[in-house]
Amino acid sequence: METKDKLITVEATVKAPVVKVWELWTTPEHIKNWNRASDEWHTTKAENDLRAGGKFVSRMEAKDGSMGFDFGGTYDEVRAKEGITYTLDDGRKVEIVFSSEGNKTNITETFEPENTNPAEMQREGWQAILDNFKKYAESKN
């Protein structure tokens, strides 16, 4: 990835073992339940070919139908229950690290920001999605 000062990092500690966190993070039917930055949005489609060279896509749409977009890319590396790196369709790099601490899992996502929206807005959006994942995962224990 590029120089560290250009990267954005979001983090969360989920009260669930890494085996459960990995399953909920990577399974399309679960992705559709947590992948949104706010309650005004939802993920209507999720596909995930979880392997190096595999592709993924999530269709994110405003619930009022006013807008939507595909969020997708190609996996560069997949280390089961440890980490994922991928390249988004627009060429930006993302790294996700899962650190197991018994019945807790720390998730750290680091990504290259895009040039359209302010970096802080992007950080807040990615953090909101990660927070939704945390809430969803903890409700499944």
TrEMBL record:
<dbReference type="InterPro" id="IPR023393">
    <property type="entry name" value="START-like_dom_sf"/>
</dbReference>
<comment type="similarity">
    <text>Belongs to the AHA1 family.</text>
</comment>
<feature type="domain" description="Activator of Hsp90 ATPase homologue 1/2-like C-terminal">
    <location>
        <begin position="15"/>
        <end position="138"/>
    </location>
</feature>
<dbReference type="InterPro" id="IPR013538">
    <property type="entry name" value="ASHA1/2-like_C"/>
</dbReference>
<dbReference type="Pfam" id="PF08327">
    <property type="entry name" value="AHSA1"/>
</dbReference>
<protein>
    <submittedName>
        <fullName>SRPBCC family protein</fullName>
    </submittedName>
</protein>
